[in-house]
Amino acid sequence: MKSHNWRDKAKCRGLDVNLFMPDDGGVIYKAQLQAAVAVCSECPVVNECRDFAISENITVGIYGGLSNKGRREFVTGKKKVSTNKVRQKSFDEIRHGTLNAYQRHKCRCEPCAEAGLEHSRRGNEIRKAKRKAA
User: What's 6-17 look like in SS3?
Assistant: First the structure.
């Protein structure tokens, strides 16, 4: 059996467990998640906590400052790109004939418009298939 002595040094020790088990979605979830991560950010054993959750395959709750999704991204090496850090591409950087040029920059040249129509067609096909299956 593994030793969990690191738990004695955890910043969350003695706090309400519900803080680290937020409900999914909504404003309350985000507030709980932020509060839990704030506690974890000051914790001296945050790495041990995260590693414990990963090794035990825990899928619920905040461990080591990460939600289940965050732990999966940590393990796979795929990091979520925060939308507030993504630089908006200028019109010159967008390739013509792409959905991005059509939607974001309102380019209405023939190749861009065709990309927008193709995207719309695919979306309609997917919706029809889902309705049929239901």
Answer: HHHHCCCCCCCH
- Cβ within 8 Å of residue 94, ≥6 positions away: 100, 101, 104, 105, 107
- Give 60-66 contacts, CB < 8 A, sequence gap 24+: 60/21, 61/20, 61/21, 62/20, 62/21, 62/22, 62/33, 62/36, 62/37, 63/20, 64/40, 65/36, 65/37, 65/40, 65/41
For residue 77, the one-letter residue type is: G
Beta bridge pairs of residue 66: 63
Look at the block and give the residue holding tokens 């990309």.
Answer: 115
User: For residue 88, what pLDDT is reported?
Assistant: 57
Q: Can you give the pTM of this predicted structure? A: 0.53
Distance of CA 10 to the CA centre of its chain: 25
Residues of the chain with pLDDT under 50: 1, 83-84
Compute the distance between CA of residue 107 and CA of residue 94 in angstroms, rounded to an integer.
10
